[in-house]
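User: Quick sanity check before I run a bigger batch. Here is a single chain. Can you write out its predicted 3D structure?
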Amino acid sequence: MEDIAGGTLSRLAAFTTDPSGGNPAGVWIGPVLPDDGVMQAIAAEVGYSETAFLAPSGTGAPGEYRVRYFSPLAEVAFCGHATIAGGVALGARGPVEGNGAALVFVTNDGPVTVDVEPGLDGSPRATMTSIETWVREPEPWLLAGALELLGWDRDELDPRLPPAVAFAGVRHLILAAARYERLETLDYPFEPLKALMLRAELTTIQLVWRESASVFRARDPFPVGGQVEDPATGAAAAALGAYLRHLGEVVPPATFEVLQGVEMGRPSHLTVSLVPDQDGVRVSGEAVAIEPLAL
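Assistant: Done. Predicted structure follows.
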């Protein structure tokens, strides 16, 4: 942890208890958010896919933080793994006075509730609840273009899980493979897929395979973030929960696991929960310091 721009900057790996796994995120916490240019410069220096910047919202509500997310290149609307990392970093400081373990992160698109509680080893474990979700059929040009660039054939898709665009803070194209062997190989032209995703305003393409009723394998191409693949995507896991609920494949109350990052050597474990009469999807995970977190 280091002092920078009037706050403290930590580096954590989210959705793992192993610093060599999960998805790295920067977490800056201070009394007031820095100027946009300063946040952008810090995110670029950190170099991770996203850095979350947190400061008290100013409303006086205990546990309420204004949160903004920056990639090394630009601000992004929402980032699930940096939200989990931010919740764990705040939870390591102790309970929020007058508000137990509950936090509210006020993002650019609306409030996200973050609950922090001890995990199995006693370290903080965070659960975020997404904003309102939606699920739509993909435009024909988007589906055809994605399949072509990924090198997937339509008959390799799981007929029980049709392609869809799902939103739980940002947009994701969900493609489900009928067999795991299809998911094992990921090879695509970087710039053309990036251009397609930018046209469709996608954050990732979530490629999944249903291993069992309660376990999904996932890989997320992330060229719009400057990476071939994202090792853990909390927002995509929330979108997957909304998608499965929309199809009736998962009926609340329900919990399932998403295993991501395995094929790229950064295994991640995301827990997704659906609650009756709640539109938002809950995604839980641990985070561990990549550098000593002296809080």
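The first strand starts at residue 2 and ends at 4.

User: Great, the batch can go ahead then.
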